[in-house]
Amino acid sequence: MAAAIEVRDAQRGDADALVALWREMTTGSGHPLRLPAPPTAAAVEVAVGKHLDDPFGRLLVGELDGAVHGMAYLRRTAISPLHDDFTVTVEYLHVSDAARRHGLGKALIAEAAAWAEHENCAHLAAVAPAIAREANRFLARLGLGQAGVLRFATTHTVRRRLAAEHAPNLLALLSSRRSVIARRAQLGRPPLTLDPGAADVSFPAAPESAGT
């Protein structure tokens, strides 16, 4: 008999299962080690409550025979800053090792596609680690082609590398700009953007790409 599969929005009672899935996702082979450490169950309960009230995001769980074995986070955003079209992006898609090959991943993607259609989103995107070959082959079989590479680092790391590679005074410049942005936020004014020309510093070319 085929296993019973159900996909639904995560509830606060799923906190322990979500923590276990996150821990497996961040320690298993083929996944990036740069992801944040597993949160506490209490923190997950709070986060799940916020997602339940978010019209632009959904946190899904996938059940196999009544037990949570999969998760995916859906975000509805503009496809680009220059277009009015929206897309649904699937992030942190993960199925536990014990529940592979039963169709749970397909069920999570199917729910994402159904939500995209419901929200009149003509496009669906999915984020997968570049080194996760199995996940990328799975997404490719469903028609999702590679559009870019998502890179992740702490803010401190990026600021330190910029200061080391481009200008001795860049770290001080970034610190002063951060203070200005904080003051403007307190006054309710729009934030300033960093103007490279103001300090006569050059930046590297933007990467060619800019997301379970």
Q: Let me know the number of strands.
A: 5
Q: Given the structure, what is the number of helices?
A: 6
If you consult CATH, what is the topology of the largest domain? Aminopeptidase
Number of domains: 2
Main sheet characteristics: 5 strands, mixed
Kindly name the structural category. alpha+beta
Helix content: 25-40%
Mean pLDDT: 83
Radius of gyration, rounded? 20 Å
Highest CATH level, the class of the largest domain: Alpha Beta
| Uncertain ranges | 194-212
Head-to-tail CA distance between termini: 29 Å
CATH superfamily of the largest domain: Gcn5-related N-acetyltransferase (GNAT)
Question: What is the second-level CATH architecture of the largest domain?
Answer: 3-Layer(aba) Sandwich
Pfam family, one: Acetyltransf_1
Protein name: L-amino acid N-acyltransferase YncA
Keywords: Acyltransferase, Transferase
GO molecular function, one term: acyltransferase activity, transferring groups other than amino-acyl groups
